[in-house]
């Protein structure tokens, strides 16, 4: 059943019909490179993925994963904050993916921050082409996660509803702080 799959896999299934070959897509939080790999396959040989992460370890893991699949030529990995996207991209993009929290298997003290995430979301929403998307999975069950989750929700709820559609998916019967999925599409 689809609700029993990993959230990232569910997001990938949602995006398959949306991403067009030749698109430029941002992986705003590269992590271990699974989304970068998915996106590199989806954009095809004429597309481009631009991945950001503040941790060199994440960039290294993603590079290894992409090289082993022969797809590194489709991806530009940038060791910088996603909030600095405007230093690297000025043309329209087809979409962006965020996984908020900390690097799985990495230092749990290094987390995404509300301030930089909001800066990135604002800049990316301005870069989206018509029909473009933003997906966000908020893993917020750690110190600082609740603040970021609330900031993201406020930002998304204030987007102009004549320009953007926003949605939230969360689990109702899981204990603790289960992850939340946010979906955005530019009209």
From TrEMBL:
A GO BP annotation: methylation
Residue ranges that the Swiss-Prot or TrEMBL entry lists as coiled coil: none
Source taxon at top rank: Bacteria
SUPFAM superfamilies: S-adenosyl-L-methionine-dependent methyltransferases (SSF53335)
A GO molecular function held by the record: methyltransferase activity
Entry keyword set: Methyltransferase, Transferase
Protein's UniProt name: Class I SAM-dependent methyltransferase
